Amino acid sequence: MLMNQPTQVISHYGLEDLRQRLAGALRAVGLEGKTLLSPEDLAPLDQFHTRGLAATIELARSVGIEGDTEVLDIGSGLGGPSRYLAATYGCRVQGVDLNPAYVTAATYLAERAGLTDRVTYQCADAVRLPFAAEYFDVAWTQHVAMNIADRTALYAEAFRVLRRGGRLAIYDVVQGEGGPPPRAMVSDSRDQLPAYGRRHGASAGSPGVSAHHMGGQNGRKCSMVR
Question: What is the CATH number of the domain that holds 81?
Answer without folding.
Answer: 3.40.50.150
